[in-house]
Amino acid sequence: MTDPSESPYSRNARADETVQQRRRLYEITGTEHVFWVAHATVGEWREWRRVCETNAIDDPLNLRGFPSRQLSQPILQRFPLADGSGFEDENLTTDLGQSYDLEYLAPELQGTGYLWVQDVAPISPDPAVAPPGEHFQLAFQAPGDAAQGVWVDLKLSLFKGPNGDTSVTQRTLLFSESGEYAVDIELNIDTFLIAWLMRCMPLTFQPLGNETRAWLTVPTLELPRGRGDA
Predict the structure, then answer these.
(1) Using the 8-state DSSP alphabet, how is residue 94 labeled?
(2) Virtual CA dihedral for 26, 32, 36, 38, nearest 10 degrees?
(3) Residue 41 in contact with residue 26, Cβ under 8 Å?
(4) pTM, to two decimals
(5) Which residue has the higher pLDDT, 202 or 107?
(6) Residue 74: its pLDDT value, please?
(7) What angle do CA 225, 226, 230 make, to 5 degrees?
(8) Which of 166-183 are b and which e, b meaning 16 or more Cβ less than 10 Å from the residue's Cβ?
(9) Which in 67, 141, 171, 189 has the greatest CB count within 10 A?
(10) How far is it, in rounded angstroms, from Cα 91 to Cα 76?
(11) Cα(15)–Cα(84) distance, integer angstroms
């Protein structure tokens, strides 16, 4: 029978769990998350909050301490120039007063990615069962990727509030093609319709600059005797 307290992570190559021999510093490689750090350093992944508290980490998804970025970004639309010499970006946020909000994004992202929108055919020819123009899908294409990630369903009716108005916003978590990057984007009905009209909306990610944390202090955790001792 499996011990319910056992960590879901593999115990291979785990840190020595005796307090006397435990390392006091942990170097961040950039690929791990706080749950793994807690498991590797104190032998218990559930102690991730203590890791955050010891190192004054406000965002457990940002172990390296990258500077924060502005998550409310303008909507840019690229239009061809009349003389055919190229394209020019028009700031629709300035013209329409709308912007999109990124509630979370992978800190390593920089450059230009894209939010894709496509229609989904009704699942039934009966308008009462599946109203036309109700089902859509969103996808995220990370900077440098050749294709979008997994498409995620979105219904237009989700923007409707209890009074029938369209005041409700929708947050959607989207992953890149490789699954390495993610964005959590919040749209209202207006920004969604703009994205739908554009079909491919640019998302601009500015460099975050240098990280401010390369090492973590390992918290002291007195484990029950016999857990890691010989």
Answers:
(1) H
(2) 30
(3) yes
(4) 0.57
(5) 202
(6) 73
(7) 125
(8) beeebebebbbbeeebbb
(9) 141
(10) 5
(11) 62
